[in-house]
Design goal:
This protein has a three-stranded antiparallel beta sheet. It has a two-stranded antiparallel sheet with strand order 1-2. The protein is built from seven helices and five strands, in the order αααβββββαααα. It has helices spanning 2-11, 14-56, 59-63, 139-148, 164-167, 172-182, 198-201, and strands spanning 66-69, 72-75, 106-107, 113-116, 119-122. The protein has a domain at 59-87 and 94-201. With 202 residues, the chain is mainly alpha-helical. The longest helix has 43 residues, at 14-56.
Amino acid sequence: MRRMKLVWRRHRRLVPALLLLGALVGMTILSACGTEGQAKTSRADMIKRGEYLVNINGCNDCHTPKIMVNGMPEPDPKRLLSGHPANMPMPALPTEPFDPNGWAVRTTLNLTAWYGPWGVSFASNLTPDQVTGSGAWTPDVFIKAMRNGKHLGSGRAILPPMPWPMIGKMTDDDLKAVFAYLHSIPAIENMVPQPIPPAAAQ
């Protein structure tokens, strides 16, 4: 008993230091957990915001193949934002020249291919597939493309009916949210055809 008292007297000054150290360790762990939780919440909020923006801007109208429901084309949820189907046969193109006073645009029943004075354009695969979709893009490349109207930000022109001038007016945060959502959906392998220039389309 006497020995225990001696040990206690010798080391009692260490007790507050040990308690303080324990509290600091605990606070560090809680802080790290809180930061990680906030990051997860922030990412989830960004994806949710991106989904909202994609839906209200009608991206599925062109970039998602359709299924017929009660005689009306509706986006196929199994092919969400996968672009013009690679295996879809190309319909015969009109042979008459465009009439400046008449109809100027035609589309397929899928609404994923469009024919106009610019030739034929095909809706891109926006899913995060690494080879055929947006998997290799970065947020900066996506923002640059929407601002400049150029494929991958500096390539060929983004053709009608893609409303890039309107989408390009979104804030950087909104465009990053759209990009985050596009990279959260299932990747679908679908190699969309290259655009057909006007001379070849007529």
